[in-house]
UniProtKB/TrEMBL annotation:
This is Twin transmembrane helix small protein. NCBIfam families: twin_helix (NF033233). It holds the Pfam family HIG_1_N. The chain crosses the membrane at residues 6-25, 46-62. The lineage of its organism: Bacteria, Pseudomonadati, Pseudomonadota, Alphaproteobacteria, Rhodobacterales.
Length: 68
């Protein structure tokens, strides 16, 4: 279980990085893409960060309980 959870944590952190890079690139470029999607990308980043933090907490908790 912990190995699967570890891979989910890595995937969630990758989603945070991807959404952050897309949001920053759109903000830097400006224009129509940023007007349409800038706020949406930052909301997605916050959602992905929340999920990643929950998964990290679950992973640390399960590892401390001896769950493999």
């Amino acid at each position: 279980m912990a190995d699967t959870l570890f891979y989910l944590v890595v995937a969630a952190m990758a989603a945070v990085v991807v959404s952050l890079v897309i949001g920053i690139a759109g903000y830097g470029k400006g224009g129509e893409f940023n007007k349409r999607n800038g706020n949406k990308m930052m909301r997605f980043r916050l959602l992905f960060q929340f999920i990643a933090v929950l998964l990290i907490i679950a992973y640390v908790y399960l590892r401390s309980q001896g769950g493999s």
